[in-house]
L-cysteine desulfhydrase Cds1 (Streptomyces roseolilacinus), 388 residues
Amino acid sequence: MTTVEQPEPAGPDAGATAGGPAPTATADVDRSDPAYRTWLKDAVRKVQADANRSADTHLLRFPLPERWGIDLYLKDESTHPTGSLKHRLARSLFLYGLCNGWIRPGRPVIEASSGSTAVSEAYFASLIGVPFIAVMPRTTSAEKIRLIEFHGGRCHFVDDPRRMYEEAAALAADTGGHYMDQFTYAERATDWRGNNNIAESIYQQLRLERYPEPAWIVATAGTGGTSATIARYVHYMQYDTRVCVPDPENSCFFEGWTRDDPHAASDCGSRIEGIGRPRMEPSFVPGAIDRMMKVPDAASVAAVRALENAIGRKAGGSTGTGLWSALKIVAEMVAQGRTGSVVTLICDPGERYLDKYYSDTWLTEQGLDIDPYAATLDEFLATGVWHG
């Protein structure tokens, strides 16, 4: 495990080159036109109404031996209307784009996404009545593709995940639409100081628990927006909580963080859908977080299957990546004789990945052996000893 001193956070304009310039193609819209202003107010109202209708997501307990004096919680983001953590992000991005004048009536919204963000954005595009196009890897799970199309979106596939950005930008230019660019704007669109963001919600739900201020919050990174929101909120509220970001194979975030290298890159895409990136994304804020772990993909799958055994719930691979790291942190606390609480996330439901993380055929095709990692988890949960 490598833990290094953090680099300084990027400034407010960091990533403008990597993520492309802010959309400015609004000259064809007369912003003083009463019809446009009426459409804009109605669109913002509809997106805000979605939040008003939505209850908070549950904070579930992962069973651990009482004698350890440690509580492990899972923030269940799979209960959002579109079934994932990305529902929060999509809502924020749509409000950001609408209020900036970037999303216009009749023009498509286009996103580069490996799946869950695109599902949620397709939902919001349908809600306000604009077309939606998802630019995504051809290997995206069939269930995510079905959900995007169910919400009225269209899928545009690329063979090389590294080409998603330029394909999305080109489609926006060709159609006169808006490239949402979650990887640049995720950390900017979310109100990290509060306003019922995910961090504020976690602390409110822990208020009556025996350890209301968690020792650690574990959040995986795709855009990096969630980890940035949580870490910034922790610092803003002056909590002692530490934030850990686990990173899967075929992702450059861990290497960029440990080497303080903003140009770190990976040659191929992540097998754990929704997290891990081939480049250091503008919304990933390394200076805000305290620790990173590199998690083998087989360990992520073993952990997500252990989750089903423990609480009877299937979840996606990114949940497994976070759970593996959270349990490893719990193991360190046990070994040190420390008590406290740890929080991680259920990012999306496992039913979206039955042909991947719950398929032994897929594991064989990918050359993944989860047995040693499953044994590590079984031994730890039975004895409190972590080997591996």
